[in-house]
Design brief:
The structure is a homodimer. With about 300 residues, chain A is α/β, with parallel strands linked by helices. The first copy, chain A, is built from twelve helices and twelve strands. Chain A has two domains: about 1-180, 3-Layer(aba) Sandwich (Rossmann fold); about 185-310, N-(1-d-carboxylethyl)-l-norvaline Dehydrogenase, domain 2 (Orthogonal Bundle), CATH 1.10.1040. In chain A, helix 1 (about 10-20) crosses helix 5, helix 8 packs across helix 9 and helix 8 (about 215-235) crosses helix 11. The interface of A and B includes residues 202, 212, 303 and 304 of A.
């Protein structure tokens, strides 16, 4: 299958690398000059489960991709705030057959994609893989993980295309499952990000350290309840107990992990995706007349930390 | 006037020192061995507005004060969680004339005092002075400040005694005012502590740094509203706008200050008084069936930080 991976930070590198290793045709595009330079010179370099690996793939700057290039799938793995510009910049490379697959953290990205593309071409999901950029030219890929996706528009050929995408990703070792309801899954993953990413960033700790604090469970439950309340207004009947369990299962599976938001703000002094996670619940809660105080305060707190650090 | 200052950390040292300098009879008592040792050996040592000063006063351990000693006033300036034991240990030194004056941070201390002493002997207030312990044998006293107090039980001789206390403290340069309603004042000061102390501790910044962050005002307003809601259930009609202004006026007056909770947790790795500030609003809000999510989450977050640091 012919993939364009749009956004090859830590997670984009994992997907591009695994897809390429499995024999797919992979091209990458990125908006960060320093990263792009190393991709062009040295390819995708990573420590993958303890082994140093390199895969060479065509790499382009976000605005330098030749208009005549076509792909079966454009896989979006940018930071949330970079998505819209990336979609706009890649529009010339879409035709009526190109599938747009978004596996990013954050809620509401399908709405961004649907502003520019027919719903029938949009595929949505999320991933529980971890990834960490150690340097602009190197990524650390450890821990077990998985991903899941589905078509956004019902019917054919979308349902068959989603199955095909799942097969290709699964064959590449990315442990991919087909979803019944992709938006349910995005909200469920949002619960992980809106608790562990946010709180581990505020407290500068990893998941296991956070799990041992005396109020961790109470905070997780309150945040998940707010995600569920906003989800309900958007037709998603989130199972709160199951979502809390899903969050807390991360302590066991990836306890030593420092979440991506921690990597952004604490390690790299970059502004975070919080507006697309807790901030989504806060702003949409307000729209629906719901109280979402935990998500409001957590969003304000992450921005306070960004402000104090003069994050870029 | 004959004072026993109970608790001579940073703030207790300011009051003991100023009262002694103004010619009052001052004795001090403290529960911390290392501090006590230096008080006995070197007296009250401080940098007071740029000048190194020393005052020698009788100093006793919390349980070693001779039972026959009597005082006009016992001024409580312990940490909130130490108050009850201090009151119990000093009970033998109270007679029917001893005034118990509490100027500590935290809400509800008059209830603790009234468990052991007649309401008529309890005087309550708060202080906006700052103080910082630089070493166990030295305190830094800078910035302008004030204090205010009143009798808790109405009528005479309490009202006259409160006036007398105000005069003595004011003469000692402590800029003291008589209050109409001491519990109103405690809630109003609680708003300062429940916003600036808590948030500057979580973010490890001073007041001025916090004031420049983009969500500071929103967070202050939400917390003050919760203090007002719980206050209303306790007969206190807090003026939210005035209280917010009182909080934000601190940016100008003591902007470079790191609040006492910051000093406890960030500087000295000690557990904080948060349960008597935001935690008071959280627990009493629950009792009254009110929602106080900002105070709930802030209390949980401060405890999370204590847990992660293994604070003592």
């Amino acid at each position: 299958m012919k993939f364009l991976v749009a956004g090859v930070g830590a997670m984009g590198t994992r997907f591009a690398l695994k897809l390429k290793q499995a024999g797919n045709d992979v091209t990458v595009v990125d908006g960060w000059d320093l990263r792009l330079k190393s991709l062009k010179k040295d390819g995708l370099r990573a420590n993958l489960d303890g082994q140093e690996v390199i895969e060479h793939v065509p790499a382009y700057g976000q605005t330098e991709l030749p208009n005549n290039l076509r792909f079966d799938v454009v896989l979006f793995l940018t930071k949330s705030m970079q998505l819209e510009q990336m979609v706009k910049d890649l529009l010339p490379n879409f035709d009526g057959h190109t599938m747009a697959l978004c596996l990013m953290n954050g809620i509401g990205h399908e709405q961004t994609l649907e502003k520019y593309l027919p719903k029938e071409q949009v595929f949505l999901g999320n991933t529980m893989w971890t990834a960490q950029m150690t340097r602009p030219d190197h990524v650390l890929l450890e821990d077990d993980g998985s991903c899941e996706l589905s078509n956004v528009a019902p019917g054919e050929p979308q349902a068959s295309q989603a199955k095909q995408l799942v097969e290709v990703l699964d064959k590449a070792g990315l442990k991919c499952h087909l979803l019944a309801d992709p938006r349910y899954s995005v909200f469920r993953k949002g619960c992980v990000n809106g608790t562990l990413n946010t709180l581990c960033t505020l407290f500068e700790c990893n998941l296991e350290e956070f799990s041992k604090t005396s109020h961790a469970h109470e905070m997780v439950v309150e945040v998940v309840k707010e995600f569920a309340a906003v989800g309900a207004k958007e037709g998603i009947d989130l199972d709160v107990d199951e979502a809390v369990h899903h969050v807390e299962d991360c302590y066991r599976v990836i306890g030593a992990h420092y979440p991506s938001m921690y990597q952004d703000l604490v390690k790299n002094n970059r502004r975070t995706e919080v507006d697309y996670i807790n901030g989504y619940v806060a702003s949409h809660g307000k729209k629906y007349g719901l109280k979402t105080p935990y998500c409001n305060l957590l969003t304000q707190e992450v921005h306070t930390k960004e402000d104090l650090q003069h994050a870029k």
